[in-house]
Protein backbone atom coordinates (compact mmCIF):
# COMPACT_ATOMS: atom_id res chain seq x y z
CA UNK A 1 0.00 0.00 0.00
CA UNK A 2 2.07 2.89 -1.29
CA UNK A 3 -0.59 5.57 -1.47
CA UNK A 4 0.06 8.02 1.40
CA UNK A 5 -3.58 9.11 1.59
CA UNK A 6 -4.77 5.52 1.89
CA UNK A 7 -2.16 4.75 4.55
CA UNK A 8 -3.14 7.86 6.50
CA UNK A 9 -6.84 7.00 6.29
CA UNK A 10 -6.16 3.47 7.46
CA UNK A 11 -4.01 4.67 10.37
CA UNK A 12 -6.78 7.08 11.37
CA UNK A 13 -9.41 4.33 11.20
CA UNK A 14 -7.26 2.07 13.37
CA UNK A 15 -6.64 4.91 15.83
CA UNK A 16 -10.37 5.65 16.07
CA UNK A 17 -11.21 1.99 16.57
CA UNK A 18 -8.68 1.62 19.38
CA UNK A 19 -9.87 4.88 20.95
CA UNK A 20 -13.49 3.76 20.82
CA UNK A 21 -12.62 0.44 22.41
CA UNK A 22 -10.57 2.11 25.16
CA UNK A 23 -13.37 4.59 25.89
CA UNK A 24 -15.87 1.73 26.19
CA UNK A 25 -13.56 -0.12 28.58
CA UNK A 26 -13.06 3.00 30.71
CA UNK A 27 -16.78 3.78 30.77
CA UNK A 28 -17.65 0.25 31.82
CA UNK A 29 -14.98 0.32 34.53
CA UNK A 30 -16.29 3.64 35.86
CA UNK A 31 -19.76 2.11 36.15
CA UNK A 32 -18.56 -1.14 37.71
CA UNK A 33 -16.29 0.49 40.30
CA UNK A 34 -19.27 1.98 42.11
CA UNK A 35 -20.67 -1.46 42.83
CA UNK A 36 -17.37 -3.10 43.79
CA UNK A 37 -17.36 -4.70 47.21
CA UNK A 38 -13.94 -4.31 48.71
CA UNK A 39 -10.41 -3.96 47.50
CA UNK A 40 -10.18 -7.47 46.06
CA UNK A 41 -13.12 -6.94 43.72
CA UNK A 42 -11.78 -3.53 42.73
CA UNK A 43 -8.43 -5.10 41.91
CA UNK A 44 -10.15 -7.74 39.77
CA UNK A 45 -12.08 -5.09 37.86
CA UNK A 46 -8.92 -3.07 37.24
CA UNK A 47 -6.98 -6.14 36.12
CA UNK A 48 -9.72 -7.12 33.69
CA UNK A 49 -9.98 -3.59 32.30
CA UNK A 50 -6.23 -3.26 31.86
CA UNK A 51 -6.08 -6.65 30.17
CA UNK A 52 -8.77 -5.59 27.71
CA UNK A 53 -7.09 -2.22 27.14
CA UNK A 54 -3.79 -3.94 26.44
CA UNK A 55 -5.52 -6.26 23.97
CA UNK A 56 -7.18 -3.30 22.21
CA UNK A 57 -3.86 -1.48 21.93
CA UNK A 58 -2.08 -4.61 20.72
CA UNK A 59 -4.77 -5.29 18.11
CA UNK A 60 -4.42 -1.75 16.78
CA UNK A 61 -0.65 -1.89 16.80
CA UNK A 62 -0.68 -5.23 14.99
CA UNK A 63 -3.16 -3.98 12.39
CA UNK A 64 -1.10 -0.89 11.73
CA UNK A 65 2.14 -2.83 11.33
CA UNK A 66 0.47 -5.47 9.17
CA UNK A 67 -1.11 -2.90 6.87
CA UNK A 68 2.09 -0.87 6.56
CA UNK A 69 3.84 -3.89 5.07
CA UNK A 70 1.31 -4.74 2.38
Spell out the key features of this protein.
70 residues; 87% helix; mainly alpha; single chain; 0% strand; 2 helices; elongated
Description:
The chain is elongated, with a radius of gyration of 16 Å. The protein has helices spanning 4-33, 38-68. With 70 residues, it is mainly α. The mean pLDDT is 93. It starts with a helix and ends with a helix. Helices cover 87% and strands 0% of the residues.
| Low-confidence spans | none
Question: Mean pLDDT, as a whole number?
Answer: 93
Shape: elongated
How big a fraction of the residues is strand? under 5%
How far is the N terminus from the C terminus?
5 Å
Helical residues, percent: over 70%
Summarize the model shown.
The chain is built from two helices and no strands. It is mostly helical.
Task: Describe the secondary structure blueprint for this structure.
Blueprint: H1 4-33, H2 38-68
Amino acid sequence: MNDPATRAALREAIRKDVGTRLDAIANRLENEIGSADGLEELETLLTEALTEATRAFADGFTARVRESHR
